[in-house]
Amino acid sequence: MKQFLEVGKINNTHGIRGEVKMLLWCDDIDYIKQFKTLYLDENGQNGLTLLSARQQKNTAILKFEGIDTIEDAEKIKGKILYGNRDDAKIDEGSNYIADIIGCYVVDADTEEEYGKVTDVLNFGSCDIYDTESWGKHTLIPAIPDIVKEINTEYKVIRIKPMKGLFDEN
After folding, report:
1. What is the rounded distance in angstroms from the CA atom of residue 71 to the CA atom of residue 160?
2. What is the mean pLDDT of residues 57-61?
3. Coil, strand or helix: which one is 97?
4. In Å, how far are 37, 74, 155 from 25, measured between CA atoms?
5. DSSP strand E in 57-155: where?
6. For residue 163, is pLDDT > 90?
7. 3-state DSSP call for residue 115?
8. Quick check: helix, strand or coil at residue 32?
9. What gap in Å lies between CA 22 and CA 55, rounded to an integer?
């Protein structure tokens, strides 16, 4: 499992005092507020101390220690920010997308394998698992009627497929 997970991308500066706008790649601003440090790389080497975070429409406005001017903020514009998974808590029964990707999808009753999750999409109502098997992609809605168990430790998702999900016609 990845230790440092993408939480968003700095897409612009905000004002003249070094604040930046970040596109949130996580559920909400409350998740970001759990972090004392965010990182500019996936290995946790280049840390930035988070002083404040607030929501603004669909973005977050962040202030970091030592980034006090618009010129300082310009230097990190376009960067992806990472959080250490040990520094934040998620709700029980929730999973990180990074842990879902790579899981095998199997039938909860027959153990038939349907493929491997290559991406997690969301168009508003629920997550959708993009599952690939032999070059063919199937989109599986991640709803309780279909997804019966997610075990990221063993990299397996057990489902009860609805009629037509894997039919060839």
Report:
1. 53
2. 90
3. helix
4. 17, 20, 22
5. 59-64, 80-84, 104-107, 113-122, 127-133, 136-141, 147-151
6. no
7. strand
8. helix
9. 10
